[in-house]
Structures are given as C-alpha cells and as structure tokens.
Design a protein that fits this description.
The chain is mainly beta and 133 residues long. The chain has a single domain, classed as Hotdog Thioesterase (Thiol Ester Dehydrase, Chain A). Helix content is 13%, strand content 43%. It has a 6-stranded antiparallel sheet with strand order 1-2-6-7-8-5, with helices on one face. It is globular.
Length: 133
C-alpha cells in the first residue's frame, strides 16, 4: 500500500494472505460495513475423520472480523474471542463468512461473526473484542 496513512499489507496472513502457501487464502470484501468471504476446507484442515478442525473455523471467523477493520484501514488486534460451534464442518464443504461491528467505545471495538453453509445453516458464530492501535 503506497499511502502512508494506510496500514501495512498482510500478504503472509495465515487466513487471508495471498502469499502464504500454507494459509487459508480467504478473499474478503466489505460492503455496507459487513465483511464477507468464502472458505472451502480440504484434507489439510482435518481435526478427525473428515471433520474440519475447530481451530481452522476459529481462524476464518477471527479473520472475517479483523478484516472489517482492516478494510476500513483500522489497525487492531483481537483481545478476546468467544466462539460457539453449532455443527461439524466436513472436508470440502464451503462456509460463507460474515463479520460486522456490533459496538465501539474508544479503542475497544466489539465485533460479531458467523459461518454458514450455502443453505444458511449456522456452523459457528462468535463475538470478539478488538483493541485499536
């Protein structure tokens, strides 16, 4: 990014970095203050028996929330995140991710995120607090 007021690029980010060869490489977009992305797990993301590891789902949700801020040029870090898994995710199932700001008070920004199947079934949802730099 060439503008000095912009935060640095995250090309090696595990979740969204396009240059990270072992990363999830999720592409995020921001529209109407909602960040969206899609992720399809493969056999490298297994926890057990064709089921995606919960940490992979957590990483995807953490990053969709972080990208709400990143795409608004706000540098912040996750301070706390609580996730609730609603159903297992099988390898080769796609999840559709959404993240948005729930509230903000000075440097503390509370975000929410969700991961759903294409039919709308909720796989996991979360709430996180981020601290702006």
């Amino acid at each position: 990014m060439s503008n000095a007021n912009q935060i640095e690029e995250a090309k090696m980010c595990f979740a969204c970095g396009p240059d990270n060869p072992i990363g999830l490489q999720i592409r995020f977009t921001l529209a109407d203050d909602v960040c969206s992305g899609e992720f399809r797990a493969n056999e490298n993301h297994v926890g057990y028996s064709n089921t995606v590891h919960g940490g992979i789902i957590f990483s995807a949700l953490d990053d969709v929330m972080a990208n709400v801020l990143y795409l608004k040029n706000i540098k912040a870090h996750t301070a706390r995140c609580e996730i609730r898994y609603r159903r297992p995710l099988a390898v080769n199932e796609s999840i559709f991710l959404k993240g948005w700001i729930d509230s903000q008070r000075k440097r503390l920004i509370v975000l929410r995120g969700e991961a759903r199947l294409s039919d709308g079934t909720l796989v996991a949802d979360c709430e996180a607090s981020f601290m702006a730099a």
